[in-house]
């Protein structure tokens, strides 16, 4: 699995009537990598991520996942792609309030015939003791861990994370970043993390910076710092 983004352009508004948000973005992301997309607010990071996730249309260019052009798929094919390959994590956790932690995760367990082992996943994410609680009984960090478990249970090849630590304090953010590292190692998941936390650039394999709808910098890290050692 690898991702190729080729010269994508995108404007919002009817018929693309608003200003262009992505102004010709091209890149390639390799399997098993952790890639950070950094850039100021409004630069187009989420738009790029949503395009890779097939959540948004583009005006021109292409997005290919393992050679399959997802920008050409019909609605049914696109939903199969999302179901089979993708997990999404957002700044706000979007848990179902009247389901327990375990039940929230189970909602997605049935999407695949080959889910990860529930108990092992709960253990990996430090949720074993919280599995019978409701979201309102959890801290922000615990809720995000539940959202991550929900995205992971179907063992997606690609996990797209939009500001995963955006609503969390320092300590909880560090824990989530350490978890992201662990998930990548244990399950081989490819991760793309959109963030404006620039400290994250030190822990990832690859950094893509976006400025005003264009890639302004793109490099591979030769030295990778463990998330546990990040400071900001
Ligand atoms: P980032 O994630 O880097 O903060 P976004 O990709 O969310 O940036 O947004 C890039 C630009 O596109 C911003 O100017 C934003 O206001 C605009 N935008 C995002 N989503 C929409 C939308 N649904 N309709 C109109 N404009 C949008
Ligand atoms: Mg955003």
UniProtKB/TrEMBL annotation:
Residue ranges annotated for the ABC transporter domain, each copy included: 3-232
Keyword Amino-acid biosynthesis listed: no
Highest taxon above the source species: Bacteria
Gene3D superfamilies registered for this protein in UniProt: P-loop containing nucleotide triphosphate hydrolases
GO cellular component terms attached to this protein's record: membrane protein complex
UniProt entry keywords in alphabetical sequence: ATP-binding, Nucleotide-binding, Transport
Keyword Transport tagged: yes
CDD domains in UniProt: ABC_MJ0796_LolCDE_FtsE (cd03255)
Parts forming coiled coils: none
SMART domains, per the entry: AAA
GO molecular function: ATP binding; ATP hydrolysis activity; transmembrane transporter activity
InterPro entries noted in UniProt: AAA+_ATPase, ABC_transporter-like_ATP-bd, MacB-like_ATP-bd, P-loop_NTPase
Recorded family membership: Belongs to the ABC transporter superfamily.
Protein name: Putative ABC transport system ATP-binding protein
